[in-house]
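Summary: Need help interpreting a holo structure output

Steps to reproduce:
1. Submit the protein chain below together with the SMILES for flavin-adenine dinucleotide.
2. Request a joint structure prediction with the ligand placed.
3. Inspect the structure token block that comes back.

Expected: a single structure record containing both the chain and the bound molecule.
Actual: see attached output.

Input attached:
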Amino acid sequence: MGERFLINGAGIAGVAMALFLQQNKEVEVCLLEADEQIRTPETGITIAPNGMRILERLGLREQIEAAAKFSRDGLVIADRKGKPLTKFHEAAGDNRIWALPKADLKNIMLGALEPGVLRLGQRGMDLIQSQEGVQLELAEGGYLRGGYLIAADGMRSVIRRQMFEQNRLRYAGGICFRGIIPKQPVHVVPDRFVEYWGRSGRIGIVPLSGQRTYWFAVLRARKNSAILEDYQAADLLAHFMEMPPDVTEVLHLTKNQPILREKLYELETLDTYANGRVALIGDAAHAMTPNTGQGGNQALEDAFVLAQLLHTSQVEKAFEMLSFVRRERVAKVAKLSRFVGRVGQIRNPLLIGLRNSLMRSVPADFQHRKLAEIYELETDRPS
Ligand SMILES: Cc1cc2nc3c(=O)[nH]c(=O)nc-3n(C[C@H](O)[C@H](O)[C@H](O)COP(=O)(O)OP(=O)(O)OC[C@H]3O[C@@H](n4cnc5c(N)ncnc54)[C@H](O)[C@@H]3O)c2cc1C
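--- attached output ---
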């Protein structure tokens, strides 16, 4: 390749891309991050088997496993009384789902970057591409030149808005609240990631290493609902009073902890992730709802697939093939995530009863096959 690659955005996608590219000593990698320092919100993240396999290829599996915790039961979904709706076999070996504070994941990934690759406080703005290369103007003044630009600047990507069709970010009809409490509540089962689905919404509890506990709650909300946006832990506690004791205990313990709240959006499927010398990866290309915990895992997959393509193809061709290889898979995961969100947010008691009995009657093997489709990488399949 022998080229200079600019990567705009040092989230999971951008850092993973830089880590793969720096393995090629003929390539110069320039990873730009708009923020002056890496700021990762106080929240957890789950790493599914597909994401973990890519982190392994980056040589980071051991460090991640040391910082993370896995669930012995995969992801358990239960009703508001705590009765399981899904039946997973024990999640073992390579099929474990891991969770850790997002800041720990980012720190491990950033720690593997070669010196000089990351440039903090550089916000890419206007991009010009020509036959010779790309020129990215920076908000702080000046510009950077390179052969190619990989935009990993998240769901509101400025590069996508300039260089690609104007696909909409769609409001996904809900708000997600998240937090980490620094202790292990007595009612929380230490080795189980559980999500409860009730009339009032969905709430998940994920034990982390170091006795910490990550929780998230998704409530249905109109786009302009100001009431929910102001919700504090006490409001959530009142909201989820019907739920089992681990939920109420976690929310009670959250009272003095910061809560992160985000309206959920997803990006309409783009026709392509490539435009000449520019490619999109991660949320910039395909922001999806978080209901299957796959956004970050898919960002890792993008970086891995693009790196593989760059080994065998000329750069612009590799960018084009990225869309070809990834769009269908990402659309499938996003669709499943949307579906899980809708089914999990049903409020009508009759429909909830119907949903719950349907879920209980789905054979475990079927559920496993469906999950395997998401968790398996293309490269893992026998050809
Ligand atoms: C509630 C919730 C829960 C989730 N849970 C999970 C989960 O458990 N597992 C999972 O895999 N995924 C999960 N996700 C999704 C996951 O967080 C995202 O898909 C993932 O973080 C996307 O990474 P990214 O690098 O593409 O984008 P981002 O994380 O958005 O990173 C973009 C980076 O680019 C920088 N940037 C932006 N603009 C510019 C610019 N102009 N110039 C330079 N830098 C710029 C930003 O500062 C940022 O650092 C969840 C999402 C939500 C909302």
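--- end attachment ---

Reviewer comment: The pocket of flavin-adenine dinucleotide is lined by residues 8-14, 32-35, 45-46, 123-124, 152-154, 158, 176, 178, 262, 282-284, 290, 293-297, 299 (CB under 6 Å). The CA atoms of residues 160 and 166 lie 8 Å apart.
Status: needs-info
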